[in-house]
Amino acid sequence: MKNNVRIILLVFWIIVIFVLTGYPSLKTPEIKEFPVDKLYHFFIFFILGILEYRILKTYLFFLFGCSVVIIAELQQLLIPGRNFEILDMFAGVIGLLIAYIIFKWRSTLKNEVSKT
What we know:
Elements: H1 3-22, H2 36-53, H3 58-74, H4 86-115
Helix pairs in contact: 1-2, 2-3, 2-4, 3-4
């Protein structure tokens, strides 16, 4: 995929993140004793990690990704019906980290196979 297309997809996904996390009174389905909203945070930031992996170097990947996580959660302080939660930020960072680990592992495997 061309870098320009990757950048456009990344920007589009960041807009989606801010729309979803900034939507007033957005309710997630509830399952007893299971924080479904944390799963949503994990997945939206996992996708962010996938989109930014090939564009940014490692330190920028985490700096940029964590900045989006923090800003998306901080905006909820200003939105009626939304709540700021540290665990949502934690779920977002874990999503980024898992995306990074998967792609790094995949890249390492690909390099090992090409050497043989």
